[in-house]
Amino acid sequence: MIMKYSYFPGCSLKGTGRSYEESLLPVFKALGVEMEELDDWNCCGATAYMAVDEVKACVMASRNLALAERLGHAELLAPCSACYLVLNKTKHYLHDSASVRGVVGQALQQADLSYSGNVPVRHPLDVLINEVGLDEVKKRVRHPLKGLKVAPYYGCQIVRPYATFDDQYNPTTLDRLVEALGGSVVRFPLKTRCCGGSLTGTLPEPGLLCSYIILKEALARGANVIATLCPLCQFNLDGYHDKITRKWDPVRIPTVYFSQLMGLAFGLSEKEMGLHRHFIEMPALAASAAA
Amino acid sequence: MDNQRNEPRIGFYVCHCGTNIAGMVDCPAVAQYVSRLPNVVLSRDYKYMCSDPGQELIQQDIREHRLNRIVVASCSPLLHEKTFRGATEKGGLNPFFFHMVNIREHDSWVHTDKQAATEKAKSLAHAAIHRVRFHKPLEVKQVPIHPAVLVVGGGIAGIHAAMTLANAGKKVYLVEREPSIGGHMAKFDKTFPTLDCAACILTPKMSEVGAHPNITLWTYSEAMKMEGYVGNYTVTIRHKPRYIIEDACVGCLECIDACVYKQPKFFDEFNMGLGKRKPVYIPFPQATPQVVLIDPETCLNLKTGKCKKTCVEACADRKAIDFTQKETFSEIKVGAIIVATGFKSFDAQRIPQYGYGTYPNVYTALEIERLVNASGPTGGEVVLRDGKKPKSIGIIHCVGSRDHKTNRWCSRVCCMYSMKLAHLLKEHTEAEVYSFYIDMRTPGKGYEEFYGKLLDEGVQFVRGRVGEVTDWAFTKEEEGKLVIRVEDTLAGYVRRIPVDMVVLATGLEPQADAQEVRRRFNMSCGTEGFFLERHPKLAPVNTFTDGILLAGCCQGPKDIPDTVAQAGAAAAEALVLIDKGHIEQEPNTAFIHEEDCSGCKSCIPLCPYSAILFNEETRKAIINQALCKGCGTCVASCPSGSIEQNLFDDEEIFSEIEGVLAYE
Fold first, then answer.
1. Which residues neighbour B533 within 8 Å (Cβ) at sequence distance 6 or greater?
2. What pLDDT is attached to residue B2?
3. Based on C-alpha coordinates, what's the Rg of chain B?
4. Strand B69-74 to strand B40-46: parallel, antiparallel, or no bridges (unpaired)?
5. B51 and B107 assigned to the same domain
6. Which burial class, exposed, middle or buried, applies to B362 when counting CB atoms under 10 A from its CB (0-12, 13-18, 19+)?
7. Measured between CA atoms, how close is A48 to chain B, in angstroms?
8. Does residue A128 belong to any structural domain of this protein?
9. In the predicted model, is pLDDT for residue A285 greater than 80?
10. What is the span of the domain harbouring residue A16?
11. Which of A254, B5, B537, B588 has the fewest Cβ atoms surrounding its Cβ within 10 A?
């Protein structure tokens, strides 16, 4: 079974979240899912743009949607939660507001582009669960993640304000994926709580506190790894351990992408999965994956 | 009444309805326009046509101007067609020489352009003037009524309605699908705001029902099918097997003691699963009837056939246990039916962030009712699932109410029952009690005073919809507790309040099978799924099907006083109907011109009321006039055009359409 999607990486998957792309592409390839990267894509419109001028952010996002429509695959994959949200939010705005449609239409016209509104934006986790299916995933597991206790952490942007493929308050798709890979899931009531977002950069005090709470609670619940699906969450939970330790106490627990866990379970190496790029190493993960 | 057959002499009246119509339609202009139409002898506008002077005006004009057709342009015929037909009849005409034009619901209320609305009123009046010329005199038929009443549902609504009717000397069938009557009220501990014990006021009524000579009580039974029409309903009742011969069981409960299961171990429905029962059981001590039943899902003998049947030994000569029982059916004839099927408590698991089903110490309000009850599973001792006494308790209001993600409506009783539980929990445990509310709704006699009393008792009221209940601790004090996260909208910040016990004030919603029951009794449901009353103010216990009445929470959430009042009203409506002895049948029914009927039978399956039969001898269809509701489906579908409908024959309908189209 071969499925083909357009692919919008966004800035994170080429920068701070490189290991997300490095792990996602080979894993999806192994599952027969082809991802064709959009040519000449631009910023999705998240954070700064969305905060300053929503309509301009919509224009940014719409250009990517227009490129996807021109590329011709039925659906667009957006692995970064921020991109996923902005692209979907833009689709809602275009659908609901004639004035946004007008501004976006004019802007696209100047670039010889157009967008009809008909490109569904999907998250890779959604595609895994609902298109590929966990049975296909299970078939490719060579090294079940035995002994790995995973805190499933979804972050905010794929469940708020829209919850398109999972429950808004108690999402379970990631839980089910981890179980399919042979890992065990700890009950984690903070699965959709804020990681601190961009506050870690602008207002570190409350931002880091958010990250600290999640890391501390994951450890308290006996997890030895946090699985995530958002580059910003991964960055916040992995990158500030020195500051968090200085401020509170050490809460060393690795945070990895679901795609990295999949790769390890499929028998790919830590290096291939880009795990060497993370700050917190996972001896426990390596040992259990090999077991 | 010679003039009725002569050249039409039409009187036309347009009603202002205060400003309801006159605010959007130029009534004098309509009257003036109609006055110039052919056959119109007289055309007037008047402030309130439905008033006594308005009706007298019609009668007087009929006499003075020898009118033989009347048209009134006013509100919906649903409201006042009867009124004006009455006035027409009093004036000396056949009432069916009257025709009504709806220029309120169909015109003034739904338009914003006065000129266009006036034009619309004129065109509708034009159509009516055209049509009324072809009206024929019709006779209202009288059909005798069956003097018994069926009450469906044995909660407090059904109990009260049944008692009222029985005390008036009427025969009542009370059908309840659970093994005992009593409904939700039987599970409650105290009732607000007086705090009198629910059982003390309910159980005497329950036993009265059981003993009343005029009431046939069928528990563990369901009304499955209804046929017929107002005054003459035939209802099929299904009796589920309880494996006990009801007449032989004396309620000694010795079989329960003797059961091979020495300890109760199965989910006890009455105690919301907080207690356990045996396969042979009585739902609760005051159950009516005082008869045990055997649950086939858990009874060893019924499941496997291998059991010592110690229950049968214990029953001995009474021989009340019968493992061979099968479901049986009865058919009854009644004149009216009161539907009092109650509500379903909102399933708290639909709001996962409140943790019901995840955290053992999150309870629903109904569970707490059982927990504080002296005859409940803990004998009235309020303890957590691990046996400890809670030191702090949080009650969350509006769980599944006033929430666009679940149910939008206010369930009306939760504020009050939450406060009642707050009071009882404080009394039983001396715990710190928090109540999280959005708005405090206490519109009832003595209700606001009760709120004041609770404030004095020191219950902490926090205004804000709770965001989540979680078990992750942020501070030492929170460890091992349930933490309620809420924005305190009066204090203006987000609070984390650690408690030992959380109580969810779940809302009221329609029964799971409300749609099925709705179809069974030919009723409608509102958008939220509760059964729809005929008119929200003026016919609150009637439905759109004559003789089908509503009582209690199946029509919408309400407290016990309102439920009992409504049940009394439903009983009174039933009495009005059956005491009259007969019903008058609208003559706007369809009939078949036999000579033209080809016997194709295409009309038969189309009739929603099963009113059409096929006469095998003559090979013609026949319409039962008593069952026909005059919907016109068969008329439109008949390929040979052999079906005609009174008041809607071809020349009447076509002339009406012509009237609209010819208007300029």
1. B539, B540, B541, B542, B543, B550, B555
2. 44
3. 31
4. unpaired
5. yes
6. buried
7. 27
8. no
9. no
10. 3-122
11. B537
Is B399 an 8 Å CB contact of chain A? no
Residue B536 belongs to domain spanning: 142-240+327-342+511-585
Q: Cα–Cα distance between B315 and B319 in angstroms, integer?
A: 6
Confirm or reject contact between B352 and chain A (CB < 8 A).
yes
pLDDT at A101 over 90: yes
Query: Cα separation of B244 and B322, whole Å?
Result: 6
- Residue B490 CA to chain centroid, in angstroms? 38
Q: What is the ipTM of this complex?
A: 0.84
Rounded Cα distance, A21 and A277, in Å:
12
Q: Are residues A20 and A58 in the same domain?
A: yes
By the 10 Å C-beta count (0-12 exposed, 13-18 middle, 19+ buried), B113 is classed as exposed
Nearest to B472 among A169, A170, A217 (CB): A217
pLDDT tens-digit series, residues A125-163: 999 999 999 999 999 999 999 989 999 999 999 999 999
Residues contacting A53, CB < 8 A, separation 6+ = none
For residue B557, list its beta bridge partners.
none
Contacts of A189 in chain B (CB under 8 A): 468, 470-472
Token readout for B163 is 């008692």
Query: Same structural domain for residues B314 and B352?
Result: no
Mutate to test the interface with B, among A170, A186, A219, A249 (most CBs of B within 10 A): A170
Which residues in chain A belong to E strands, given as ranges?
A: 3-7, 33-37, 76-77, 121-122, 149-152, 184-185, 225-228, 255-257
Interchain CB contact of A245 with B (< 8 Å): no
Q: How far is A170 from chain B (nearest CA, A)?
A: 6
Is the CB of residue A170 less than 8 Å away from at least one CB of chain B?
Answer: yes
Say if the Cβ atoms of B471 and A189 lie within 8 Å.
yes
Q: Residue range B44-60: average pLDDT?
A: 96
Return the structure tokens found at B200: 């003390």
Sheet of B328-334: strand order equals: B221-229, B232-239, B328-334
- The Cα B487–Cα B494 span in angstroms is 4
Residue B221's H or E segment, with its range, is strand B221-229
Cβ-Cβ contacts under 8 Å for B259 (sequence gap 6 or more): B278, B279, B280, B310, B311
Angle, to 10 degrees, between the axis of helix A258-266 and the axis of helix A283-290? 40
Whether residue A184 sits in one domain with residue A65: no
Contact A281/B at CB under 8 A = no
Region B651-664: mean pLDDT is: 90
- Here the CATH number for the domain that contains residue A186 is 3.40.50.11810
Task: Give the residue from A156, A162, A169, A213 with the most B CB atoms within 10 Å of its CB, the best one to mutate.
Answer: A169
**How many Å apart are CA B81 and CA B85, to the nearest integer?**
6
**Residues B28, B74: one domain?**
yes
Model pTM score? 0.84
Question: Is B353 within 8 Å of chain A by CB?
Answer: yes
Whether the pLDDT of residue A287 is over 70: the answer is no
- What's the whole-number mean pLDDT along residues B33-51? 96
A290 — pLDDT class (breaks 50, 70, 90): very low
Q: What kind and span of H or E run contains B122?
A: helix B114-132
Q: Is the distance from CB of A21 to CB of A14 less than 8 angstroms?
A: yes
How high is the pLDDT of residue A282? 79
